[in-house]
Design goal:
four-stranded antiparallel beta sheet; 202 residues; alpha+beta
Length: 202
């Protein structure tokens, strides 16, 4: 196909005009930092039962059994060395298996690593519930964050995750003249924020 003769001079004229005005630009590859995040949950399960209706329970769990930090990072595409923070996001509890008595309630406190986590909670244990949020104590949150930081160091070095988390629950179940029997869960939701370097065309 022949190009009309008038097209070539016109194209050359436009190119010259663009060059003279500095309007021609070429794409460039530049480094950019992309922020990434993921989350997971540490779960502690408790079975309140008996006739005393005064609860003083302690439970120790292997953190790796509940929170696989290495897998969370892998799934989110975050290199362990590029993690900026790994911290407690929220603390909640819920009744999983309710007591046979619909009027059953429980009040108490929760500690973690010997530090207060929930100063006071009151819940209806006579019915299953969704997640109930609480305002956690800073001392307990700090203890968990310190432990999470240690776990991150283990993930970075490829060492086995051996860290343990110890809950302590003290509470009273009412009414006190009827046997208690229900299951509840305390959830510690963890947020992980990291970054990655990438190339972007600008």
């Amino acid at each position: 196909m022949r190009i009309p003769r008038f097209v070539v001079p016109a194209a050359l004229g436009i190119a010259a005009l663009l060059l003279s005005t500095g309007c021609i630009t070429f794409p460039q590859l530049k480094d950019r930092v992309v922020h990434l995040s993921t989350n997971g949950t540490v779960r502690g399960f408790f079975h309140a039962h008996g006739t005393l209706n005064e609860t003083s329970d302690s439970q120790t769990i292997r953190l790796a059994d509940s929170l696989d930090v290495a897998q969370l990072l892998h799934d989110a595409g975050i290199d362990p060395d590029m993690v900026d923070t790994i911290t407690v996001a929220t603390v909640t509890y819920r009744v999983l298996v309710p007591d046979a008595n619909p009027a059953r309630t429980i009040t108490g406190t929760v500690s973690i690593q010997g530090q207060p986590l929930i100063d006071s909670f009151s819940a209806n244990a006579g019915a299953a519930t969704g997640d109930v949020g609480v305002v956690p104590d800073a001392a307990g949150v700090g203890a968990i964050n310190t432990l999470l930081g240690h776990v991150l160091q283990e993930v970075r070095s490829g060492s086995p995750i051996t860290d343990q988390l110890t809950y302590g629950v003290v509470g009273t179940s009412s009414p006190t003249d009827v046997n208690t029997d229900f299951v509840y869960e305390i959830q510690i939701k963890v947020n992980i924020v990291g970054h990655a370097k990438t190339k972007m065309i600008t």
